[in-house]
Design the sequence.
């Protein structure tokens, strides 16, 4: 499957940077904003030579992660101060210390989340949504909040069935010989199937063409949007449509399958007057869309909304699952962790007639800890979430400092989650970090109340965001990840191929482990 690898991203971004270099130099002299940022604690700007800020901005393609780590240690941790890092496209990002995280709770009229989210996905160029209509009236996310935030347990049984079929096809059923598989590609396939089972149901969720096209679409949107965000605003209308060509190609392939299916479901819904319809995200979206503008019920619009859900769910969940597998099976304590996970899964399964219900999955405290710990060690981004000070507004930063409109601020996700003040031996993956102190309790109700579960948000665990705009789908995502990990440890022996490589980064994104491989063999005794 074609993808944009890390070197390719660097090459494309470097070419774009060369095109804008003259403009950057031209704008540098006399720029008051550069002088303003240099008055802050700043990381990544070398004072020697010509145009230090411009050079730092260009270097940020590959240095954002190291700059953020250095700044967090020197300013946030040691002095409780914010700091500034140069960033290609954004110009500069103000990184907050934990004591100022609550600034993110300011109203949208002062500190904007929506434009920052649009920069993350670049729907104008990657999805062809030039007026952002699919996001200004975000029916797809309303469905998630209404049905998949509290009612996520409904999907447990179907997810278990889909995981069994998907892993049997991708990992195989051979209990004699080990098989080499790519972690990232396999997780994309498995997660795409489980997500589509919840979104569109059987049998279309197993359509191989749709699965491949939607997985490629998700990758291209995230990677292409990252690249577009690195470009200055004036160049995006020129280069954005070119970068978005590949994602639009895969979107067209998906819609060729989805639109006729949506049309069929709309006819069913109309003829049955909503009675006896399938219980999935597509149906909920049809019903939600019908409450508003008639144009929202157009098959192509609904198909586009399905693609957005698939894209958001597939890429991030596959990223998390890939790293769970790598972190667990590359750990020096792998045998101890796997044995403990298998024991818990088997025990809970016996007591519940399988791992098919929310109640059973909620009882997998070690599994939950293993998932949360991996998401702590291997977060999605460097500084996230990003918010933008609204035009015409200033953000009072204290000590007489006022940030002007257009300023981007964020929180040091990776720095916080690798801080020894919160997590002893923070760089070490400890699968039972969050569950260990509850082992041996006769009354598990205490564990249910007090263990930091994967869906819990705090100032020291930021994977799902912070403040008002935390991820509404985290309960469904966490349940799926726990079911997937439980299935793997119960059914397969796993060995990592070689030593895991340090994950690369591009600007503010940490790249998925596209080259990682594992050896897999079906267990003979399950």
Sequence:
């Amino acid at each position: 499957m074609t993808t944009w690898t890390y070197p390719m991203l660097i090459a494309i971004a470097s070419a774009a940077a060369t095109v804008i270099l003259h403009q950057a130099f031209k704008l540098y002299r006399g720029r008051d904003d550069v002088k303003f940022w240099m008055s802050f604690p700043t990381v990544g700007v070398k004072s020697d030579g010509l145009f230090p800020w411009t050079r730092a901005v260009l270097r940020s393609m590959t240095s954002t992660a190291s700059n953020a780590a250095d700044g967090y240690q020197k300013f946030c941790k040691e002095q409780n101060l914010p700091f500034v890092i140069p960033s290609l496209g954004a110009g500069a990002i103000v990184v907050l210390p934990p004591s100022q995280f609550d600034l993110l709770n300011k109203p949208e009229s002062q500190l904007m989340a929506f434009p920052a989210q649009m920069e993350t996905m670049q729907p104008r160029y990657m999805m062809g949504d030039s007026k952002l209509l699919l996001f200004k009236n975000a029916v797809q996310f309303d469905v998630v909040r209404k049905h998949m935030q509290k009612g996520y347990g409904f999907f447990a049984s179907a997810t278990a069935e889909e995981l069994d079929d998907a892993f049997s096809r991708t990992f195989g059923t051979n209990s004699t010989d080990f098989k080499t598989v790519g972690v990232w590609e396999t997780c994309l396939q498995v997660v795409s199937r489980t997500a589509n089972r919840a979104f569109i149901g059987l049998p279309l969720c197993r359509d191989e063409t749709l699965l491949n096209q939607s997985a490629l679409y998700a990758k291209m949107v995230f990677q292409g949007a990252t690249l577009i965000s690195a470009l200055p605003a004036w160049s995006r209308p020129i280069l954005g449509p070119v970068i978005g060509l590949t994602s639009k190609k895969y979107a067209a392939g998906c819609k060729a399958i989805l639109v006729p299916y949506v049309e069929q479901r709309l006819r069913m819904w109309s003829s049955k007057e909503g009675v006896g319809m399938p219980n999935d995200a597509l149906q909920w979206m049809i019903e939600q869309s019908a409450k508003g503008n008639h144009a929202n019920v157009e098959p192509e619009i609904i198909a586009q909304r399905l693609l957005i859900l698939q894209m958001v769910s597939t890429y991030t969940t596959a990223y998390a699952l890939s790293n769970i597998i790598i972190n667990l099976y590359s750990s020096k304590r792998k045998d101890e962790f796997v044995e403990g996970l298998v024991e818990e899964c088997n025990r809970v399964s016996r007591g519940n007639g399988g791992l098919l219900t929310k109640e059973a999955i909620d009882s997998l405290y070690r599994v939950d800890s293993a998932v949360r710990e991996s998401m702590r060690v291997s977060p999605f981004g460097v500084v996230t979430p990003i918010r933008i000070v609204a035009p015409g507004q200033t953000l009072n930063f204290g000590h007489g400092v006022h940030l002007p409109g257009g300023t981007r601020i964020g929180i040091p996700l990776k720095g916080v989650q690798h801080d020894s003040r919160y997590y002893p031996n923070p760089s070490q993956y400890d699968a039972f970090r969050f569950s260990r102190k509850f082992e041996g309790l006769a009354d598990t109700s205490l564990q249910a109340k007090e263990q930091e579960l994967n869906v819990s948000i705090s100032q020291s665990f930021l994977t799902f965001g912070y403040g008002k705009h935390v991820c509404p789908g985290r309960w469904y995502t966490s349940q799926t990840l726990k079911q997937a990990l439980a299935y793997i440890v119960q059914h397969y022996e796993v060995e990592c191929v070689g030593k895991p490589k340090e994950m690369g980064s591009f600007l503010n994104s940490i790249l998925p482990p596209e080259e990682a491989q594992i050896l897999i063999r079906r267990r003979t005794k399950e």
Observations:
- The radius of gyration is 23 Å.
- Confidence is low (pLDDT under 50) at residues 26-30.
- The chain has one domain: 6-522.
- The first strand starts at residue 83 and ends at 87.
